[in-house]
User: What shape does this take?
Amino acid sequence: MASFFSVLRRLYLSIYNWTVFIGWFQVLFLALKALKESGHEHVYNAVEKPLLLAQSAAVLEILHGVIGLVRSPVSSTLPQIGSRLYLTWGILWSFPEIRTHLLVTSLVISWSVTEIIRYSFFGMKEAFGFATSWHLWLRYSTFLLLYPTGISSEVGLIYFALPYIKASEKYCIRMPNKWNFSFDYFYAAILALGFYVPGSPHMYRYMLGQRKRALSKSKKE
Assistant: This one.
């Protein structure tokens, strides 16, 4: 019975990882195609549907951690996926005015390259039980460049979206109301920016630690 569930787990995770890999590969392909043919102003429109689907699928990774399907700690998975979903739905999807910014291109390319490597790495491990040494190196080294470019793009897009958030008053709840509660999305966005200050260096150090452990382990093997 235990072996049956182990096979079922590997089959599910293989399908999941390769499916999301295809989604991110499509995002990168369409982004580069739009960038070449039309310019950075048209990148978001070209990638919107696969981007929303691929990034939203990452919600399952939180569930995977909660139920013990994978070893990744929820404490590190949740903020990473939460910030991605906030950018994807709470900024880019919600405020069309920001979609033509150059930072959208750097964001999409940073995210998609990172995820293509990550999902194919875990897809290989789940489907075949191993990953090549060069794949391992890419998985735990490309973030050295792509994490700073991705995070900088995230912070920049939230910042440049602030005037549109304030002017639109979208997602705001004003008093009086039956709940006796108010919420201002503009100040929530400023608060989100504040989380990047301690959060980004902490996550970068965490990934450096992961890299050191993974690469040193591969050398011993």
About this structure: The chain has a mean pLDDT of 93.
